[in-house]
Amino acid sequence: MRIRLKRLFNYFSGYPIHLKIYVIIVAAIVSVALISLLVIRISVTDTMSVQLDERAKSISGDVAARTGDLLLTNNIYAMQSLVNDTINNYNDLEYVFILNEDNEVIVDTYPNHQVSTDIINANRVASDEYNHLITFQSEAGVIRDAAAPVVKGMDATVRVGLRDDSLEEAISSVTLQIITFLILLIVVSLVVVMKLTRVITKPIDELVGLTNRVAKGEMTARITNYPSDEIGDLTESFHDMLNTLEHTEAEKENYVNQIITRNRELMLLNDLSDHPDTTKDFNAMMNRFVRDLVLELKLDSAAIEATIIDQKQTFSYRAESCPEMNSNCLITCDCDCEKKQANVFNVFSIFAHHNEIGQIKICSPEQLDTYSHKILDSIANHLGTVIENNELTHEIKKKEEIRQMLLEKILTVQEDERKRIARELHDQTGHALSSILLGLKMLEDAKTPEEVTKQIEALRKLTHQSIEDIHDLAWQLRPTILDKFGLKTAIERYIQDFQQKLDIDYDVLIKGIDTIRLTPEMETAIFRIVQESLTNIFKYAEANSVSVILLRNHDMISVIIEDDGVGFDVEKMMNKDPSKFNLGLHGMQERTSLLGGTFEIESEKGRGTAIMVKLPMSSERGEADYENTYYAG
């Protein structure tokens, strides 16, 4: 913990002082505002919760009082009108229904007039109670269920379900107001703090500027006007230090000149100490080295000619004093330079495994001294090792890339198959086995031979259907027709089989891929998306017609699957847990994403569904290699 705090302190200590002051003040303001927001939210929530409880009880009691006479006269129509008017008058009511003495629904406000047994049994009012309230979580949010007896002695009950809409609106309104006030407060505070902070930080900024000027070599720089406080004392001490440094700088200059020559040699060797990962980086390192070689040894030009990764390459550089030097001059030194004097030409061989792989060619304005010869001999020997290591690194990297590509391909194929099998087993086999298990339970409870025979026949049909589904799954694991005849034929064949299972109208349009083959990954993905879409239509859509469109437009493949079925709420469906629901839709989305495409679903209840997929074409194959292509699925 102490180490983390120390790291945090070191991190923030690097920021300017004025920024630290801003952060501290803003943090204090935000902290107070957040605490206030929390307290107010809690207070509003508690108050509104009590009000909503009383409101739910009041509504249920009011409906119960008005229902007494209607229930005694068994006026069902009037009671239905009463509950309908009640839910229309209150926007945050989820439901209203009336139960008789047998706990059966007399009237309700549900569109399909089907009240869940769980809701009916969730709240019961005792005979001696005027009202009873419970709270539970539903798909519509938090519901406050109030139960009120209609007439004592009749055991009839009015049930009212009230949502938390008004509570959420009140909390949101308070939160928005506090956040708005917080933003305004921060803005005003920053303006004030910026003015006050400038008074403190101006002398510090001047002192920092002085240190930067000194760092650039301006040893005579000084500050003329500074305050008389602690910052002023610091400025005077800094001036004294500069006077001392200015005196000692002259003494150090002589010593520095003595080590410059040694530093040149180390710098040249350091240029070759990098370990470039790519050919581009290696070439950049060699170009940088040749440039530094010319500049540090004060040469006219230098060129390195070597065979690197089976290619002959040349890295060269010329001094500004020889602007007319070209490739021939680098080899012969026979060119006109501003110095108007003959150049000296030297060659140093580069060896690797006792074989000459290149040369260093030098043009110098005069004969190289012994020290320069030793440096160039050492560099030539080191270059042989550098080039050899670069070739080994390139070979190892190439092999590693191939291995990684193969591994990723294997893992991708395995994972895709696992996900697809999981989806199929979940949607088909799992449901079928559950139905068989339920049928066995009903068979166990059967009381007559006729019921046993009827249940056995139903189980036999269900088992036969499960076997067919498993056979379909085995065929779907890898349809051979996709490998042999391509995507167009595979889709048309699958849709024909699909139409035989479900007698509906279907329309297929496939254009642009008659004479080409897409990549194996793309063909498999498109086939699986069409397959999953038709499977969902078969299970859930209750459609009368299906349309499948596959078009190629330049470098883009578009796939559209439409039906006129019951449709569904897309946002609600996609937000469900993918490990429990809609595995198929998430699988299609995942396949599309892996290929860099886009996946869209358009659907409304009662208006059918449209799935639209767009995939970029990464590669394609013509008719010449159509039959000789291997596809991994």
From TrEMBL:
Residues 424-619 form the Histidine kinase domain. It comes from the Bacteria. This is histidine kinase. It is found in: Cell membrane. It catalyses: ATP + protein L-histidine = ADP + protein N-phospho-L-histidine. Residues 198-250 form the HAMP domain. Its EC number is 2.7.13.3. InterPro entries: HAMP_dom, HATPase_C_sf, HATPase_dom, His_kinase_dom, Sensor_HK_TwoCompSys, Sig_transdc_His_kin_sub3_dim/P.
